[in-house]
Amino acid sequence: MKFINSLFAAIVFCAIAFQANAQIAEKKVLTLDGARKVIAAAEAEAKKLNATGGVIAVVDDGGNLMALERMDGTFAAGANISIGKARTAALFKRPTSAFEDIIKNGRTAMVALNDFTPLQGGVLIVVDGTIIGAVGVSGAASADQDTQLAVAGSNAFANPSMQMGEMKEMDPAVVFFGSDKVNAAFAKGVPLIEQYNYKIHASRREAAGMVEVHTKDTDLIYVLQGSATFITGGTMVDGKETAPNEIRGASIQGGETRELKKGDVIIVPNGTPHWFKQIKGPFLYYTVKVS
User: Fold this and answer.
1) Arch. (CATH architecture) of 163-290
2) What is the C-alpha to C-alpha distance for residues 61 and 28, in angstroms, rounded to an integer?
C-alpha cells in the first residue's frame, strides 16, 4: 500500500509540474552585448554611407533602453527621438515607417497616443521569428538614411555564419528555406545564406542607394516585386572603398539605364558600377552573388 501511495503521489507531482511548465514559456532576450552589436552594425553602415551624424538607440522587447550611441556632431534632441522611435517599434511591434504612412493617409488621431514617435527610423530586431527588441536612429542625413542605419543594426543577428568576418565553409548537404523564412527575410532585406563561393540575398529596397562596385562578386538579380531605374557601367563618381572588395560612390557618369520590373533578370559582372537610382517599391529581388 505504501508503494502504491508513493507512486500515486509521484504521478500527481509530475502532473502538477507538467502543468506548471506548460504555463511558462522560454523566450530569447536581447543582452547588453547584443545591443552593442546592433549599434556596431549600424555604425558600420554609417561609415559605408559616409554619414555625418546620427544617434542609435537599442531597446528590449518591452521598450526599455539598453544602449545608446551618439555620433559626433549630432543635434542633442536626436537622443530622445531615437529612443522614441525604438520604443514605438518595440511596443507596437511594427516599424515606425508604417505609422508615418498611416498618419500621412489621414489617421492623425494616432499622434495622441502615449509613448508614440511616428517617424521612420525605428525597426524591430527579430531572431528566429521572435521580436527581441528594436533599434531607432535619428539625426542622419535624411529620414531614409535613419531607416537604412536602423535596418543595418537590426540585421546584426541575421547572418551568424559571417560573424567575425569568417565565411562558412561549403556545406555539401541540401539546403532548404521554407516560405515563412523566405518571406521573413524579404520583409527585412537580409541574406538567406552566405558560403565561401556564393551568396543568396533576399534583397529589399524602398529608396535609392549608392553606386556599388563589387571587385570579386558577380551579381545575378531576379526581380520579384516593384520597379527600379537601374544604371550599369559608366564611371563612378567619388568612389571610396568601404570594405574589402567593396566600393561605393555618389553617382555614375554615363552608363546604360534600364527600368527593372517583375520577372526581369540582369547579371552584373564583378568590377561593373551599378546603381539603383530610383525605386518604386517596395522593390524585392533575389541577388545571387558568385565569387
Assistant:
1) Sandwich (2.60)
2) 10
Residues of the chain with CATH 3.30.450.150: 32-157
For residue 134, the SS3 value is: strand
Residue 63: φ, ψ to 5°: 85, 10
Which DSSP helix (H) or strand (E) runs through 150?
A: helix 143-154
How many whole angstroms separate alpha carbon 278 and alpha carbon 206? 9
DSSP-assigned letter for residue 168: B
Task: Give me 67's grid cell.
Answer: 544602449
Neighbours of 10 (CB within 10 A): 10
For the stretch 55-113, pLDDT in tens is: 999 999 999 999 999 988 888 888 999 999 999 999 988 888 888 777 777 777 767 67
CATH superfamily of 32-157: Haem-degrading domain (3.30.450.150)
Grid cell in block for residue 250: 555618389
Report how far apart, in Å, the C-alpha atoms of 54 and of each of 96, 149, 173, 190 are: 17, 9, 43, 23
